[in-house]
Specification:
5-stranded mixed β-sheet, about 400 residues, 15 strands, 2 domains, alpha+beta, L-amino peptidase D-ALA esterase/amidase
Length: about 400
């Protein structure tokens, strides 16, 4: 398995064998593509999908949940710049119509397609535009690559996000995993708080694909946070065509984990207004749930995020964030250790020279904060978790203050 820095090194990123895609402009944004359709024409169809748990989940999520249940979805249609959320029965009817027209264009049943939407909440799809666009797909070229698809679904992203990993099949051939993702705001998951689609030409049973994908999502997208807000439309999908042949299950899990981690780090680094990638590692917890809870408390703290942005060596804000987890009574401050990069700040109590070095550490484009809770020392557990986010800047406020205008 070899990761490829596709987003930087390549001008085109072909989808895995068996997939064909069209990306086009329906007119939802002023310039550029805003709708894409991908269909699996391979010998088999395995799929997995996970969705937001928002109470305001949009029609795209509701319909995709139904269609994904059997694990044999053959494709996906994505609409950018309009979430079609909180739009009532009319919005649901619009989403069904989009699915039906897209399915007709690629020759599959509507129940075999998934749908994802992203953009402003509370506005119905501009159906005349979408009808015209989707009805024209029957004679269109389906030659879009992954970079084109990633670009078409951007909203406030500053660049498209792609990742590629190659695997060796059990017969000595090569299979590929290609991932695309978008979403740099409203990121605090009950699932993967963005849209991501992972394609592979490996031959895999739906249950095996689901296990590999969900495991990767849990360790990556579900450990991502930009601003503590959970979106209403978030969808992560995996599709397998079977063209390349079978792969070892452990190899598949590693490949999916690598692609999802790559995309997660790209999403965190491109957080709205972000200038730095912030990684928080927590070890020595009672279990993974506790480690993740503490890590998110640090990552989501506005005071920690602003300190990172300004390279302010105020390491005490991390201690504050840990202290907020007051229901975790097995955390003893005397056992806790806080490290920025390779510099221990607690219980070392840094002096002026160390604080100057801490400032330099926090000026880097990537800042890593490591915390050992010390609960393991009491024999209670060995949980650990790493989460990913970014700093909080004035630009974040500007972007979201003017988002719909």
């Amino acid at each position: 398995m070899s990761p490829l820095n596709a987003a930087v090194a390549a001008q085109t990123i072909p989808l895995p064998a068996g997939f064909r895609a069209h990306s086009g402009a329906a007119g939802l944004r002023e310039h550029g593509d805003d709708v894409f359709v991908v269909v699996n024409n391979g010998p088999s169809a395995a799929s997995s999908a996970v969705f937001t748990r928002s109470l305001f989940a949009g029609p795209s999520v509701q319909l995709s949940r139904e269609n994904a249940a059997g694990g044999h979805a053959r494709g996906v249609v994505v609409v950018a710049k309009n979430a079609n959320v909180a739009t009532g029965e009319e919005g649901m009817a619009d989403a069904r119509e989009v699915l039906e027209r897209a399915a007709r264009a690629v020759g599959v049943a509507p129940e075999e397609l998934l749908i994802a939407s992203t953009g402003v909440i509370g506005r119905r799809y501009p159906m005349p535009m979408l009808r015209t666009h989707l009805d024209g797909l029957a004679g269109a070229e389906f030659d879009a690559d992954a970079l084109a698809l990633a670009t078409a679904m951007m909203t406030t992203d500053t660049h498209p996000k792609t990742a590629v990993v190659e695997m060796t099949t059990t017969t000595g051939g090569t299979a590929r995993v290609v991932g695309i993702a978008k979403g740099v705001g409203m990121i605090e998951p009950d699932m993967a708080t963005m849209i991501a689609v992972i394609f592979t030409d490996a031959a895999v049973e739906p249950a095996e694909l689901d296990a590999a994908f969900r495991g990767a999502v849990d360790q990556t997208f579900n450990c991502l946070s930009i601003d503590t807000d959970t979106s209403t439309s978030d969808t992560a999908i995996a599709l397998a065509s079977g063209v390349a042949g079978p792969v070892d299950q452990a190899e598949l899990r590693r490949a999916f984990a690598a692609v999802c981690l790559d995309l997660t780090r790209q999403l965190a680094r491109d957080g709205e207004g972000a200038t730095k990638l912030l990684t928080v590692e927590v070890t020595g917890a009672r279990d993974r749930e506790q480690a993740k809870r503490v890590a998110k408390a640090i990552l989501n703290s506005p005071l920690v995020k602003t300190a990172v942005h300004g390279a302010d060596p105020n390491w005490g804000r991390v201690a504050m964030a840990i202290g907020k987890c007051h229901e975790d009574t097995d955390i003893d401050p005397e056992r806790v250790r806080i490290v920025f990069g390779d510099l221990e700040t607690y219980p070392a109590f840094p002096g002026p020279a160390e604080l100057e070095r801490l400032t330099e550490i926090m000026r880097a484009e990537e800042v890593t904060i490591s915390v050992d809770l010390g609960v393991i020392e009491s024999g209670a557990g060995t949980g650990e978790c790493t989460v990913y986010g970014c700093d909080l800047t004035r630009e974040y406020i500007s972007i979201n203050a003017d988002y719909t205008t």
